[in-house]
Amino acid sequence: MSRTFWTRAALFLGALVFLFPFYYMVVGSFQESPDTTVKGVFPTGGWTFDNYVDINDRVDLAQSLLNSVIVTGGVLFGTVIFGVLAGYALARLHFRGRGTLFAVMLLVQIIPFQLLIIPIYVMIVRSYGLADSYAGMILPFAINSTAVFVFRQFFIGLPEDLFSAAMLDGAGELRILWSIAIPLVRPAILTACLITFIGPWNEFLWPFLVTKDQHLQPLAVTLANYISNIAGRATNPTGAILAGAVVLAAPAVALFVAFQKHFTATEISSGVKG
């Protein structure tokens, strides 16, 4: 058999191994009775929506999901706005200390967020008084150094002739950024959004510290509280936990499926003559 066949077979097997946890999560969320054995992979005891109803009766899934959307949306908005501006400045503007600033930004990426959580907590909650608020959950993640790096690399890759022609026509930096640079780096924007989306969407430690109000807690925090305090009293604890996991994972999967076809390099050579 050809090498192509074995390559595709290996990739197909790898895809099955990767997708198996998602399959088990979905199947387990619809099981009438818990089955954590190997046989549970192929349920024969029937399908039910009771696990979703049960977890929704004990925690407000709709409100928690809305909280996650608000927090994640705020983080994405800040990531795109500040990331584009900072990335463009580091890539196209010439000022003293630009290289040092970029090096410091790279150093920030190697510092785990957990090491900074105590000083950030003191600053956000005690100094700014943003406890029990969406702003307190959003601000620590509003500027993402990884997104800044992604935007910088994309802006550097744009042809210099495009910017030179715009400057000759009298366009300022903001005009160039809005009319030329941003339309050409849409793949970078989508990439930065997806990379950033996973963090705040699945984050439960920081929102849990910022607010104890269940009406403000995102879905990840709600599920963590449910697993710790409530799941043992459910009719099918395993099924209810898996149902909550499906609700948490579904938006991320849907977002990736919807936008994965846009992760292609933008054709920009037509914008340069010669």
Could you walk me through the main structural features you see in this protein, from its secondary elements to its overall organization?
This protein is an all-alpha fold. It has helices at 3-29, 50-58, 61-92, 98-109, 113-127, 134-138, 145-156, 160-168, 173-184, 186-202, 205-210, 219-230, 237-259. The longest helix is centred in the first third of the chain and has 32 residues, at 61-92. It is globular, with a radius of gyration of 23 Å.
Secondary structure layout plus pairing:
Blueprint: H1 3-29, H2 50-58, H3 61-92, H4 98-109, H5 113-127, H6 134-138, H7 145-156, H8 160-168, H9 173-184, H10 186-202, H11 205-210, H12 219-230, H13 237-259
Helix pairs in contact: 1-13, 2-13, 3-7, 3-10, 7-10, 10-13, 12-13
Mean pLDDT rating? 81
Tell me the fraction of residues in β-strands, as a range.
under 5%
- State the low-pLDDT regions, or none: 264-274
What is the straight-line distance between the termini?
A: 47 Å
Question: What's the SSE pattern?
Answer: HHHHHHHHHHHHH
Radius of gyration: 23 Å
* Distinct helical segment count: 13
**Largest sheet composition:** none
Shape field: globular
Described by its quaternary structure, the protein is single chain
- Total number of β-strand segments? 0
Percentage of residues in helical conformation:
55-70%
SS class: mainly alpha
